[in-house]
Specification:
single chain; alpha+beta; seven-stranded mixed β-sheet; 4 helices; binds biotinyl-5-AMP
């Protein structure tokens, strides 16, 4: 079910014509002790980042490029739920505003028919002095393609390409923030975090699929069936008769025609 659009409590929203990276800007603000729920958005990024030093590219004005500073009271092993909160909010806002209904792909993508509509980048910022109550800062950024489907060969799509109703970056940001606010409140309590994990379990399209997982720092990928998500938001993959908990990695959804290990 898609929650109703709501107002939100993000009161400090900074818009820029151009920034290097909204995540990098917000990480700097976090280190200087900026309060939680600060939001920054840009019409263009000159050094937009993906995970693992990859690039996030978009021409000026063609997408939503925004980051939110969270300071959740959350155990470090549950930080993945911050990515999940933004993924759910992004998917719900796209559906409510444009009619396009993306799927969640673990760990950080919104897909439409297996094409990447949006990517999410969550980064924790350790060194955060100031009056923050000692909580860890987490910067969560989202890039969502509105009018441009991403760089050639990247397998991306856009809201426009998927036939969505027209939306501006500002409208989409307001929609995402409206959907994110209740999720931020969920992140604040253990019960809320468990609810969030349950909702991610229900809505992550990766579950039930055959996947290839490239684990960080490991040469051999894991090929198996994604069977679950832990309460921390980690992916459970059944491979070679064993259950493996994946904390971080790149996932490819395999098609029925792809090579898979033999099953009994
Ligand atoms: C991501 O990384 O998907 C996270 C992207 C987060 C971008 C936002 S924009 C606002 C905030 N500020 C930042 O600097 N970043 C965040 P990853 O899973 O590593 O995917 C990156 C890969 O996606 C690239 O290597 C390309 O193949 C592909 N890609 C790049 N730009 C794309 C686009 N506009 N649409 C679709 N795919 C794209």
């Amino acid at each position: 079910m898609v929650p109703a659009m709501s107002t939100h409590g993000f009161s400090d929203i900074r818009w820029f014509e151009t920034l290097g990276s909204t995540n990098s800007y917000l990480a700097g603000e976090a280190r200087r002790g900026a309060p939680e729920n600060l939001v920054v958005a840009a019409l263009h990024q000159t050094a937009g980042r993906g995970r693992l030093d990859r690039r996030w590219e978009a021409p000026p004005g063609a997408s939503l490029l925004a980051s939110v500073l969270l300071r959740p009271e959350i155990p470090p092993d549950r930080l993945h739920l911050c990515t999940g909160a933004v993924a759910l909010a992004g998917a719900d806002a796209c559906r409510a505003l444009t009619g396009v209904s993306p799927e969640l792909k673990w760990p950080n993508d919104l897909l439409v028919a297996d094409r990447k509509l949006a990517g999410i980048l969550a980064e924790s910022v350790s060194d955060s002095p100031g009056d923050t109550g000692g909580r860890m800062a987490v910067v969560v950024g989202i890039g969502c393609n509105i009018d441009w489907p991403g760089p050639p060969g990247a397998g991306g799509t856009s809201l426009r390409q998927e036939g969505g109703r027209p939306v501006s970056p500002r409208e989409l940001l307001e929609g995402v923030l409206g959907m994110l606010w209740p999720r931020v409140l969920q992140l604040a309590t253990r019960t809320g975090q468990d609810e969030l994990a349950g909702e991610l379990r229900r809505r992550t399209a990766t579950l039930g699929r055959w996947v290839k997982v490239e684990l960080l720092g490991t040469a051999e990928p894991v090929v198996g069936r994604a069977v679950g998500l832990t309460d921390s938001g980690h992916l459970l993959v059944e491979a070679g008769g064993a259950l493996q908990e994946v904390v971080a990695g790149d996932v490819v959804h395999l098609r029925p025609t792809d090579d898979r290990p033999e099953t009994r």
